[in-house]
Write a structure and sequence with these properties.
3 helices, globular, two-stranded antiparallel sheet, three-stranded parallel sheet
């Protein structure tokens, strides 16, 4: 089961360290959409999100490859 959320909504940050921690404590994965910039992908992965939805799979693959996380 996952919370699938935008990174921000109407200029308000939805996904932060507290959101991810709380979701994980409740047994939820966190999937964030739609993230197309590599810097944002890196920052979200650093927060511990479980999934990133993107229009730029090529960029996400590069980011995950650098982390040794592309399977």
């Amino acid at each position: 089961v996952a919370a699938q959320v935008p990174e921000t909504q109407a200029g308000v940050r939805v996904v932060d360290r507290r959101f991810v921690r709380t979701a994980h404590e409740r047994g939820l994965q966190v999937h964030v959409w739609t993230v197309n910039e590599p810097q944002r992908m890196e920052a979200l992965l650093d927060l511990g999100v479980d999934g990133i939805m993107t229009d730029r799979i090529d960029i996400l693959r590069t980011v995950l490859d650098r982390r040794g996380a592309w399977a």
